[in-house]
Write a structure and sequence with these properties.
By secondary structure, this protein is α/β, with parallel strands linked by helices. The chain has 13 helices and 13 strands. A six-stranded mixed sheet has the order 3-4-5-6-9-10, with helices on both faces. α1 (16-30) links the parallel β1 (2-5) and β2. It is elongated.
């Protein structure tokens, strides 16, 4: 029996690779002779570089860059096994995980470090890019990233504006005289499951700002600053990102890419499915087991388990989802090809305990669902 094991990461507990190994351990307890194929997954957020580098036998490059609050951090990008394509995960340079909760402030957070990663890759000859936009700490509309690549954003005095979303309200003039010409020679795929527009009630500031530390007053100010920024971008590039789907990804970074880069947008999980060759492995599979930290209604918005289930459903392969927790709205997930969804928590315990025991709990639940699956197949026979 061939079983494809394709989980996302369990954030704060296990990487997608570690989760896959724990699931395999449980499966082999129930069926030692099972053929298991491990395909660590991601959906365009954190873990995308690791997933694609591992799947293609590529490599990772570490770069000192400016973090979201202008402190130095070690950013990272991947080079796929083809030796040509770079995967840049903005969260490694400008991510929410880089800032303690009490210091989060999207008024100040910048994407400058993400631009530095792109510049480093360009300097080393790369011209093909996949840009993973999940997990941002920022709401600067991609302005910092553009500044790192030579775009000058000037105030009324002709000086560069500061960092972060609030500084955009002081922007008067865009000077592209030092813009990196190599951008036009390159191709970029934006990997993101976010379809929100740049501004407005469903835009970057209102929908994602609060989880990055924005108060209601900050949200209003940030949306106003992004509106002003979008107006100036439209005047400069001819592209109005205000209401473009996906422009609100990563605090408006998606809009900056749409306006200034030769970029196309794909659902993050679809990019990962293609490059990991998941569909090829599904052809003769009997079962898929995937997983994530929490399954709920949000899983249907393009998260890894949903994309995997959709791919498996086309081939009639059942999909079992193992999750750290199961929230509201999972009933709609069955429409996408998921066979069953299970919480790995097996009794009363604190969140901290559950997270510390994730490998054990994941393996245990994998063994249980595998035994049930095997019993069902015996009955059919």
């Amino acid at each position: 029996m061939k079983i494809v094991i394709a989980p996302d990461s369990f954030k704060g507990s296990l990487s997608s690779e570690e989760a896959a190994k724990a699931i395999r351990d449980g499966i082999l307890r129930a069926m030692p002779a099972a053929e298991t194929v491990l395909i660590p997954m991601a959906d365009g957020g954190e873990g995308t570089v690791d997933s694609l580098v591992q799947a293609t036998q590529g490599s990772k490059i570490s770069v000192p860059v400016q973090g979201p609050l202008q402190e130095e951090v070690t950013g990272m990008y991947g080079v796929l096994g083809d030796g040509v394509t770079c995967v840049i995960e903005m969260a490694s340079a400008s991510g929410l995980v880089l800032i303690p909760t009490e210091h989060r402030n999207p008024m100040l957070a910048t994407t400058y470090g993400t631009g530095q990663l792109i510049r480093h890759a360009l300097d080393h000859g790369y011209r093909s890019f996949i840009l993973a936009l999940g997990g941002s700490a920022t709401n600067d509309g991609g302005s910092g990233m553009l500044q790192a690549l030579g775009l000058r954003l000037l105030d009324a005095e002709g000086s560069e504006i500061g960092a972060g979303g609030q500084a955009l309200s002081h922007l008067i003039h865009i000077d592209a005289s030092k813009w990196d010409e190599r951008i036009s020679e390159s191709q970029f795929i934006i990997a993101s499951d976010v379809t929100n527009p740049f501004i407005g009630p469903q835009g970057a500031s209102y929908v994602f700002g609060p989880q990055k530390g924005a108060t209601p007053e900050m949200v209003k100010a940030l949306d106003g600053a992004l509106t002003h920024w979008a107006d100036l971008m439209a005047a400069h590039t001819g592209i109005a990102v205000h209401h473009l789907p996906g422009a609100g990804a990563a605090g408006g970074l998606g809009g900056a890419f749409q306006a200034f880069f030769p970029a196309s947008t794909k659902r993050g999980i679809d990019v990962v499915i293609e490059l990991t060759k998941l569909n090829e492995h599904l052809q003769d599979a009997h079962l898929v087991i995937t997983g994530e930290g929490q399954s709920d209604a949000q899983t249907a918005s393009g998260k890894a388990p949903m994309g995997i289930a959709q791919a498996a459903a086309k081939l009639g392969v059942p999909v079992i989802v193992l999750s750290g927790s199961v929230g509201q709205g999972i009933e709609k997930l069955y429409e996408y090809g998921m066979t069953s969804i299970h919480s790995i928590v097996n009794g009363p315990m604190t969140l901290q305990e559950a997270m510390s025991r994730t490998p054990e709990l994941l393996a245990q639940k994998a063994e249980q669902v595998m035994r049930t699956f095997l019993a069902g197949r015996k009955k059919e026979v």
